[in-house]
Amino acid sequence: MKGSDIYIGWTNSTGGITVGNYEGTGHSQPSLNSVQNHHVVPLMDPQPSWSQQSFSFCRPTTVSTGQSITPTAGYIYGASASAPSGNLDSTKVSLQQHDTKGTFQPDFSSSTTTVVTNTGGSADNDQPILKPSASFPFQSIVITHGVLMFIAWAISPFIGIYIARYLKSALGHTWYILHVFFMSILTGAATLVSFILIYLYSFDRFSTDGDIGSSHEKLGLVVVLAVIIQIILGYVSNAKFDPHRESIPWWDKAHWWVGRTLFLLGLLNVYLGIKFYGESYHLAGWVLPMFWIIVAFGFGMMVYGQATKGQDNHTIATTNISKI
């Protein structure tokens, strides 16, 4: 919806309707137009019995600061169960993502009324599989998704990789159990659960817009598919482990390099996710600095392990290691 004209209305503090004119920016928060090219008028049609909120407004068909209204243009609508945050009597508010939407086509044959035909609604292909509720709104779903992914890629891999790289001999069998816990459960399972959660509740899954949100979605899909492959490689490496081997087999090296690449992609996507959240909702100022501090500490821990312990490749020279 980049560059589109958007009109959003909500109930204000007096029980009336505030309507703002915004410009679409894609997946991020619409920007308030400097020139509001409309005015609110009394309802031009009776409010339907099923409607919780209705409003009418007028605007010229052609304006200098927005899109022209034409019979051939595409029109969509959206609605949210959550009110904007901020001063509801002002158009300068933080808008919530819609939780239902569809398309419609105005009837331009009449100069006094507009007949709307719903061609989308709940049957629209871009509707979420599950709809957010008042007790679990979409923003809470996004936060849950983000927290799970943050744990999965900004915390757990540093610990799981450190254990596998530097502590095999020191921990014996326990290293593998801990590695599986951090990488298969905290990283793998949390990634899959988080992905399924946001997929079920999201609109416009894997859209083609070239913005940060689209990049986050597509990279997220790559990470999810790759993490499944990586977990399989891990179990194959364990199943084929030979405590008397004299060199590292290719499947172990594949597990290492897929894991390293996947880890970096996961970190990148967490960063993109934080930025994407900040475009749609209020992002606390400490979130990004905390992310970078944790990442710096994690890589510092890796440097320390390499300098003081060195990589443990569990070949025949390594003692106290065996297949689980």
From TrEMBL:
Xref: CDD domains: Cyt_b561_FRRS1_like
Compartments where located: Membrane
SMART domains listed in its UniProt record: B561
Alphabetized UniProt keyword annotations: Electron transport, Membrane, Transmembrane, Transmembrane helix, Transport
Highest taxon of the lineage: Eukaryota
InterPro entries per record: Cyt_b561/ferric_Rdtase_TM (IPR006593)
GO cellular component: membrane
The protein, known as: Cytochrome b561 domain-containing protein
Organism this protein belongs to: Boothiomyces macroporosus
